[in-house]
Design goal:
The complex is a heterodimer. By secondary structure, chain A is α+β, with helices and mostly antiparallel strands. Chain A is built from twelve helices and 24 strands. A six-stranded mixed sheet of chain A has the order 5-21-20-24-22-23, with no helix packed on it. A five-stranded mixed sheet of chain A has the order 15-19-16-17-18. In chain A, β17, α4 and β18 form a beta-alpha-beta unit. In chain A, α3 packs across α6 and α9 crosses α12. By secondary structure, chain B is mainly alpha-helical. Chain B has 15 helices and no strands. The chains are: A alpha+beta, B mainly alpha. At the A-B interface, β23 and α11 of A face α2, α3 and α15 of B.
Amino acid sequence: MLIYTQDSGNYSLKLEKTVDKTFMKYKGGYNIRLSNPPTGNVLALPTPEQLFLTRHIADIYFDELMVSPDEKVDQGQALARCNKGPLNMHAPMAGTVKYITDNQIILGQLNSNTAPTKVTPGSTQDTIFSSGCFIHINEVYSGKIPAKDSIPQAIFVRIANLDNYVMASEIELMGSLQEFCSGLKLLADISKDTILHVVVTKKQAVLAKKIKNDTADISNIELVTIPPRYGLDNTRLIADRWGYRADQHIWSISPQGIFALARAVNQGEKTTYTYMSVSGPAVNRPQYYKVPLGYPIADLLKASEVKDCPVRVINGGVMSGIELAADQTGVTGDIAGLTVLENNSARKLLKFARFGLDDRRFEDFFTTDMQGEVRACVSCGYCQSVCPAGLLPDYLHKLLYCNDLDRAQSAGLNKCVHCGLCSFICVSKIELTEQFIKGQAQLKAEQHKSSEGQA
Amino acid sequence: MKFIHDIFDSLRPAFADNRKLSKLKPLFDATENFFFSAGLTTSTGPHVRHSMDIKRFMSMVIVALIPCVLAGFYLFGWRIIPIIITSYLVGGLVEVLVACLRKEEINEGFLVTGLLFPLTLPPDTPLWIVAIGVAFGVFFGKEIFGGTGRNLFNPAITGRCFVALAYPTHMSGWIEPGSSVFGRIFDFWPFSMLWGATAPEAVTSATPLLAVKTGQQPEWLDLFIGNSTGCIGETSTLAIIIGAVILLAFKIANWRAMLATLVSFFALAAIMHYFQPQRFASAWFHLLAGGIMFGAVFMVTDPVTGPATNIGKYIYGTLIGVITILIRNLGGYAEGMMFAILLGNTAAPLIDYMVIKVYNRQFIQEGRT
C-alpha cells in the first residue's frame, strides 16, 4: 500500500509494495517466487570517471555532431543531433569531450556542480523534444520514438509495469504526486482530442484514486485498471482492447517521462538522468539507482556486487528483456533495469526427477539453463493458458513450421506482443517467441513487397 | 555422482560418427540425457525457462499411473509384472530401432505408452499377445506418423484395438480378484503365461458389463474399490481417481476433456436408464464399471491425440462419452471405450479445424490481421 503524508501541500509518497516484485504472476495460475528483486531506496552513485553516451536510441541515430574532441561542454549542452525532429542529445554533466566514435560520445573530467543550461520555453510538445524527455516515450505500434509534429490520438501512461526485476513504478513515483499530476496535465494539454489513459493495476487503487482527484478538472484523462498479471500490462494489448488501430499515433510514456516533462516545463530542466534497477539472481545487492545518462554499466554492476560466476546481463525484465549488446557500455534512457542471470550450463543428475513442483521454489532454477531438450510439440496447451493476447501459440507454431504465413496471419500472428510467456512455459522447449518475431518480420516484408508491386 | 558422468564420458567416443556403434547413438544419447540434463542454455529471449520439460511431463503421467499399477498388482497378483516388463521391453525395442534408423532422439512419450498399454489388457493375457500389441501400437500408432507429438492415434489404444480384433480368444483372460485381504499378492503364477496357458484359478467369468446384460448386478463398493473382473488398470475406480487428482493437481492433464467425457457419458446413461430401466443399467453402474474412468482420465486427456483448443476439448470429450455409452447400451460390444477413443482421435483434427475457423473469425472481424 502507498502511504501518503501531507506536508505543506505536497503529497510525498512513502515506498511500500503495491506491485509485488517478489512474485511473478501470470495468466494460467502461475505464481513464481523470484530471488533478489530490487529493493530498498534509490541510491545515487558517485560521479564516474567517464560517461559513455550511446548515439543510437531506439530507432534514431544522432549522426550530426555539434562538438569536437577536447571541447568543454556544459550540462545540458547539445552534443549531437539527428535529422528526425530534429532531436538533440544533451550532455548529462559538464565535462570535456574525450573521444567520439560511431557509436558513442565519451565525456571525461566530469563536474556535477555547474549550472545547467535551461530549456527554451515553448509549447508542451516542443518541450518534450527539446528537453530530451522523448527517450521515455515511444509509439505503441511501431516501437519508434514519435515524430516531432505528430499529434497522438491517445497516450498510455504506464504506471503498471509488471515485468519482473525492473523498475517498480512506485520508485519512479517517489517524487511528489503533485509534480506527477502537473506532468499529466501538461500532456493532456497537447491536444483536446488526445485521450490520456493512465494504466494502473487493481492493487494500485489508492494511488489511482489520488491521481483521479488531483486531475479531476481535466476531462481527457481516463484510468485503465488491469489485473496484476504479467503480460496484461503490455500497452499494445491495452491499446488493442481500447479499439486503437496500428495506423494511429498512440504513445506510451513511463512515469519517469511524466516527471521529466513536468521538470522541463516548470523548471526548465533537461532530461539528464534516469532511474533504473540492477537486480537478478546473480546479484548480491539488488538496488535501484538514479544515474546520469551514459553512466558506465560496468560501474553499476560493480556497485551491485555481481556474483563470481559466468553471468548474462539482460536489458529489461527477465521475461521480455533482451541481452545487453556487448558494445553498450553506458546507460541509455530506454533501460528500465538490468537483470543479471547466472549463465549456467551445468549438467544435473536426474534433473527431471527433482520435482520443483512447488512453483515458489523456482528460484533454484532461475538461470539461463534451457531446462530440457527440444522436442516436437505435444499440444499440452500450456502456451494457450498463459498467452495474454489470447492466441493459440501451438497452432501458430505448427503453421509457421510449415511456412503457412497466410493462415498464421489470419490466426492472429500480428497480435503477438513478444511477452515471452509461451517460450518460458513450453514443455517441449520450442523457441516460440523467436519464431513469432521472425514470422511477423516475414509478414511485414511480404506486405511491403506487395504494396510496392501495386504501386 | 561424478563416476556416472565419467562412465558416459568414457563411452561417448565409441558412439562417434564413424565408429562401429554410431548407429546406436540415439540410444546412448537417450540414456545419457536420462541421467544428466542436457546442459543447454537459452539463446534468445526469454532468458529463463520453466523447469517443466517433456521428461518431467511424461514422468508425472507415470507417477499418476502408479496407483492403478498397485491396484492391479493387489487384485490380480504377480502376473501383471511380466506383462508390464514385456510391454516396456518390446515397445522400447521398436522405439529404439526406429529412432536409430531415423537418426533422431528417442521420444519420452514411449515411457507412458509402455505402461498404459498393459493396463488396458485383461490380467491373463499371454505375453506374446502383449508383445505383438505393443509393437503394433508403437510402430503403427506412433512411429509411422513421425513419433510423439505427431501421432494421430493413441498408441496404447491402437495396439489394444489390434490385438482385441485379431486375437479375440486370447483377450478374454479375465480373472476374479483375490478374495482374501491380501488380494492375489501371494499367488505366484507368472510362468504359465509364457505359453499362454490359463492359470488354474483364473475363472473366465464375465466382466461386470457382460454380467449386467444377463441380469447380474455387482456390488457398488466392489466396483469402486476394484473388486471385480476387468482389465488390469481399469477395475479400481479409487486408484484411477487418485491418478486423476495427481494429473490435475500438477496441470499435466487438461480437465476439460476429462470432465466433458464423464459428464456426457453419465448424462446420456442416466437418460437411457430413465426411459428403459429394465433394458439399460443405471448411470452410476456404467460410470464405475469397465474402462470409462480409466479412458477418461488417461486416454482422453492425451494432449497429442486430442484437439488443441479448449472448446475443441469439450466437443471431443462429449463425442467420446456419447459414443461409449451408445456402444455399451445399443451396440454388440459390452465395452465401447476403446472404439470411442479411436473415433475421437480421428475426429480431433476436424474438431480443431472447425473451432479455429470460428476462433479466427474474431481476428478477421477486428480487421487487425
